[in-house]
Amino acid sequence: MTRVVIFGAGAIGCWIGGRLAVGGADVTLVGRPRVLDALSRGLQVSELGGGQWTVHPKTATEAVDGELILVTVKSAQTADAARALAATTGTIVSLQNGVRNVPLLRDALPGRRVVAGMVPFNVVRRGPASYHRGSGGNLKVENVDAAAPFTEACLRADLACELRDDMPAVQWAKLVMNLNNAINALSGVPLKTELSQRAFRRVLAAAQREALALLGRAEIPLARLTPVPPRFMPRLLELPDALFHRLAGRVVAIDPYARSSMWDDLEASRPTEIAYINGEIVALAERLGTRAPVNAALVELIHAAEAGGKRDFSGDELAQALHSMTANAPAIAPTSSASRNLP
Fold this sequence. Notes:
This protein has 16 helices and 12 strands. By secondary structure, the protein is of the alpha/beta class. The protein folds into 2 domains: 3-165, NAD(P)-binding Rossmann-like Domain (Rossmann fold, 3-Layer(aba) Sandwich); 169-341, N-(1-d-carboxylethyl)-l-norvaline Dehydrogenase, domain 2. It has an 8-stranded mixed sheet with strand order 5-2-1-6-7-8-11-12, with helices on both faces. A 4-stranded mixed sheet has the order 4-3-10-9, covered by helices on one side.
């Protein structure tokens, strides 16, 4: 029986920990008392395509050791997580958003086994101790020997996990998809409702197109995570609603109640991960000596929302706000390297 520690018992951590417990893993959830107290009668996890289980994992409010330590805290908490895990010995798997966390953990914990992973799906918190997978996709983890305990635990839990040799490209591709987190948080509606409206999708297409141009200029490759290659995604998003609806179901399934983690953060008055998602594109532009006006505007609007600002934009209102904020900003033209490096 694999001893698994989930360091960061939020929605993703509780769901993955619960599913691994279904497969027989000895799971300990490490998190805040307000989350853990709700689990005293059991943790309920359910799947998008059906299946529901109640398990009874152990809980702790401070770091404990295990054979496998899954880090699921927000990116801004990664440095604190590294300090808390310094006395542990197990293999660490980062299942976090963004592209900075694995290098940070490796630098802070020299000599430790730190493995890159990626969670492609959304988790919906349906109640204090109930978590539901809200969208499709398979877990992905770095193809190294140290990942074996994780993949074996996933196999026993019937939880699909894919070994990858290109995890940096996987993480950047996930970040491009996650540019929608801010848009969903500002819309105030579920993901499926937001993506059903062309006005919102056009905003996302603009944010992604800007990111793709910068990534191409920087010669950063992207993995293909869906049937649609990253470079074609903006075109799909801009299609008329009827045509988009016919094609989108082939890309990813989404629960009607799913929302982005950034919406959850705003709802709970927590700081968001905007600096590690859209802000990462802004930072990349600065390193290249240019600007990312669309993503910079989304960062600004999320910071305003964190301070109590508007969180119920219609698609047209959001598009108009971005137009006003970026009216004098130059567009980013893709370079020839973009076509070589984007799949």
